[in-house]
Amino acid sequence: MVKVKNLTDKEYLYGHKACPGCGLGTIGRLALKILGERTIVALPASCMSTVTTQYPQMNYAVPSLTMAFAGTGAVLTGMSAGLKAQGVTDVHVLGLAGDGGTADIGLQALSGAVERGDDFIYICYDNEAYMNTGVQRSSLTPIGANTTNSPAGTASYGEKKPKKNLFEIMIAHRIPYAATASSAYPYDFMNKMEKTKRIRGPKFIHIMCPCPTGWGFASDLAVKIGKLAVETGMWYLAEYENGKVKMNVMPKTIKPVEEYLMKQRRFKHLTAENIKLIQEHRDSEWRLIRERWLSFTAGSRKDTG
Amino acid sequence: MINKPKSSNLDFLNGDEAVAYGAKLCRPHVIAVYPITPQTIVVERLSEFIANKLMDCEYVYVESEHSAMCAAMGASLVGARAFTATSSQGLAYMHEMLHYVSGSRFPIVMMNANRTLAAPWNIFGDQRDSLAQRDTGWIQVYVENGQEALDMIIQAYAIAENDRVYTPVMVNLDGFVNTHTYELVDVPAQHEVDEFLPPFRSKNAIDFNHPRSFCMTASTEWNTEFRYQQQQAMNHAQEVIEEVDQKFGDKFGRYYGGLVEEVRCEDAEVVLVGMGSVIGTSRIVVDKLRDMSLKVGLVKLRFYRPFPAECFKGLSPRVKAIGIIDRDISFGYEGAAASDIKAALSSSGVGPKVINFIAGIAGRDITKENIEEMYYKLFNLTQGKDEQELQFIGLRW
After folding, report:
1. A155: phi then psi, degrees, rounded to nearest 5
2. Pairing of β B296-301 and β B270-274
């Protein structure tokens, strides 16, 4: 378990230009504190690259590479292969990509890299839309959200499709380690990061990152909103390793979804009927989690080579 | 071209195999390739070398060409020598990454098997795929045969990794005509290549003692300056290409002429210009017509970028008519090489007449008869007869 007093005082990400209240800086900063200075960061087109690598003001104290939108998984592969070929074994290769860059345009490259079993850590920070380009929907935008290209209107309640489940996509690859996390639960996240250091092969963390600008809430509410997502069952903190899924936080009673939804501008238009639909969707997801994942052990993947 | 090998280890190889041997001799740390006809034999031979411990490198089974170039870039970032190979649709698919790699100055070497692009779908050769990548910032060289393919893979690393260049190089072989044609190829000894091409010590790689951000965002205030540096690197590459050709020739006995090779152009009245495999056929026609006392010459355009404009400016006052063979066409205008060559000719102030011959599309043969016909059309121009500026050779209607 990570202890704050043992965390390094060194900062490897600072001076960035993220919006007030955004969890991005915290995610990058804590991840790098855990991994340390022998880490290389790869960033596709995203909020993260935009707010941290604008020449000549570079915000990383570790080497970093800004990358094509679709290629994070593949560039991590290349770094990992290049290091291995030169006999370097003490370097962490870290990808920091958004939800669109991971679940949409970058999914093929990520799948390829995980299937190949390359040694890297991939963090998908999920602010649930293309925030960098102005709040357009991605496949990780939740049902009912008002975005600039899935607007609520007289004939629309906003985004029509529920969120794609990346965690399960990673489990389907029999990845050595996958987890979900939230910027509102930094200990949980740091403990998960700590685990990634000890596991060879691909590691994937899908971390929820509430976005004051795109979701529409005051910048001092980011942690509260992040916690409410978990307390209302709209997000969960879980891990997959050794063929098993484990819930890190299991709400005793799941709060009504309104408590989470109605604090955000993107959901303000929803009717009682819309909210009922979202609640039903949440409940069916939880049934699936309980019935499929929490009582199931998948065969873990072992390389023979 | 001068070919006086100092030692000889002849093997009967096709062009793809020659590329694979060339790559092997360069000792890349990382190979990331995705198979596509007619490049596949490169992929297969390299895999066999590794499976039999004839080669020590990380071979990455990428799931697309886009990822192939991403992986090569990631490898180059950590100081590894990276190799990849593709063709046609694959090259188009990695288009975005070509800009990333050249813009962030990673000296990656790639073989491209020239093949046409769909639609209409076709696996055979023309040069539309690579010519369409003109502005991606890659150095492009077009080879005539298997020997030149092998030699240019080795030279490509020497050029790309030169301090004054740090720009990726694409080595182009005509699909099937080069990639699948078996020829005797002299495979240099490993120790000779090691002497010619030292281990890669990248000046554009990560250093934990001096962490840097690579390939970062450069705003309007700074973007022009990065582009200017790329242009300067290309200008330097012109000198470096000549130097590397000389050094390679001194070591291995084969000199290719650098940016271009002029064949019997000294007193030529009419000259044809071409790239790639058509040069081999054209040499025969030139000799035949010269035997008939016709003053014909041939320019082998080896490097398309950086473009050897000086060569054509020099040729301009000496010749009466120039024919440019393009295995592509930029629809709505003319062939890509024709536009560049005409621009160079006109900037010299004296402009010979020009015909742009569109030929060899999607694997159609450019025969000796076709080439002869081109020369005669050029002579028509010198005799004051009319010829269309753009002509499709062997058009069926």
Report:
1. -115, 20
2. parallel
Give the C-alpha separation, A69 to B67, whole Å: 11
We report the CATH number of the domain holding residue A111 as 3.40.50.970
User: Does A305 score more than 50 pLDDT?
Assistant: no
Instruction: Mark which residues 63-102 of B lie under 8 Å from A by CB.
Output: 63-64, 66-80, 82, 96-97, 100
C-alpha count within 13 angstroms, C-beta hemisphere, residue B36: 31
Query: Is some CB atom of chain A closer than 8 A to the CB atom of B264?
Result: no
Q: Which pair of structure tokens corresponds to residue A265? A: 């501008």
* Cα–Cα distance for residue pair A43/A100, rounded to 1 Å: 13
A88–B71 C-beta distance less than 8 A: no
Task: Give residue limits of the domains in chain B.
Answer: 2-255, 261-392
The C-alpha R_g of chain A, in whole angstroms, comes to 19
Residue A4 within a domain = no
Range of the domain at A228: 18-293
Gap between the Cα atoms of B141 and B259, Å rounded:
8
Q: Do the Cβ atoms of A267 and A216 come closer than 8 Å?
A: no
Helix (H) or strand (E) holding A57: strand A57-58
Q: Do B217 and A88 touch (CB under 8 A)?
A: no
Q: What percent of chain A has pLDDT over 90?
A: 91
Task: Report the alpha-carbon distance of residue B392 to residue B326 in Å, rounded.
Answer: 10
What was the pLDDT predicted at B133?
A: 98
Residue B125 · residue B197 · CB < 8 Å: no
CA distances A8 to A158, A256, B129, Å, are: 44, 39, 51
B349-376, pLDDT tens digit by residue? 778 999 999 999 999 999 999 999 999 9
Distance, in Å, from the CA atom of A188 to the CA atom of A167, rounded to the nearest integer, reads: 16
> Is A303 part of a structural domain of the chain?
no
As a whole-number percent, the residues of chain B with pLDDT over 70 amount to: 99
Q: Locate tokens 């040694």: which residue?
A: A119
- What is the CATH code of the structural domain delimited by B2-255? 3.40.50.970
CATH class, range B261-392: alpha beta
Calculate the average pLDDT of chain B: 96
Query: What is the rounded average pLDDT of the residues A220-242?
Result: 97
Contact B70 A55 (CB under 8 A): no
Q: Is residue A300 part of a domain?
A: no
Contact across the interface for A53 and B78, Cβ inside 8 Å: no
Q: What is the pTM assigned to this prediction?
A: 0.96
Residue A304 forms part of a structural domain: no
CA distances from A34 to A53, A187, B153 (A): 21, 11, 42
Q: Is B9 exposed, middle or buried (0-12, 13-18, 19+ CB in 10 A)?
A: exposed
